[in-house]
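Section 4.2 – Deliverable D4.2 (structural model, holo form)

The reporting period included a commitment to supply a predicted holo structure for the target in complex with adenosine-5'-triphosphate. Inputs used:
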Amino acid sequence: MAAPPLDGLEVSELAYAYDGALAVRNVSLVVKPGEIVALLGTNGAGKSTTVGMIAGVLRPPRGPIRFADQPLTGSPSHVVVRRGITLVPEGRLVFPQMTVMENLQLGAHVKPRSQLAALVQHAFSLFPRLSERRGQLAGSMSGGEQQMLAIARGLMAEPRLIILDEPSLGLMPTVTQELFRLIQTVNGSGISVLLVEQNLHQALRIAHRGYVLEKGEVVLAGTGKDLLADAYVQRAFLGR
Ligand code: ATP
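Output (structure tokens):
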């Protein structure tokens, strides 16, 4: 019997080469509505390339990408955003010389102006610290606050799925913990999350499921709890 259509993200056997060198060879994954799914792996495993293909930043990918049971393969990023997927790229790419409010407004460029005030209000309800800093230049905020802003800006497009590429990079452990609590809050508001992380331990604590990439291939998949207990994960990533 054929599998029922999936109202989430489904990619099968994705592959991508830079100048003939395969960076992603075989990645299949699913993000169901309401899930936090971790995409894990060490430097160069192919995580950013995978999400770049899903978000339409890297084209054309090989392998079908479907979202909400519609094909998405090869769609450019502005179409992917309108279809309900937002990528928050690695490196908290906020505009440093613009205020928090201006950064948020940019995130809503796909939305009618009439919705802007409500969207900003919603972002501030999820991230009250940004509300206090609304007039501040983004570049003058701490790394953790800039990451919050990058996520809040991604939410301004009202995604059904938000992809976060290494949000904890360069942040102190306590700030990472706070950030991951906020990611859970975002997820609790009904948004699915694909969380790219090297910080495997913390990511798996909040993820419903996870995939481990190595050299462009999925080598392990399972629930957060199962992956944390897996002997390979313990050895390869947690140094045990
Ligand atoms: P990181 O955590 O360091 O970002 P990653 O798991 O996200 O790693 P990718 O950035 O997807 O991995 O890189 C996968 C492979 O593709 C690596 O070998 C990398 O050197 C290579 N690669 C990435 N971007 C490019 C590019 N623009 N041109 C050529 N090779 C690239």
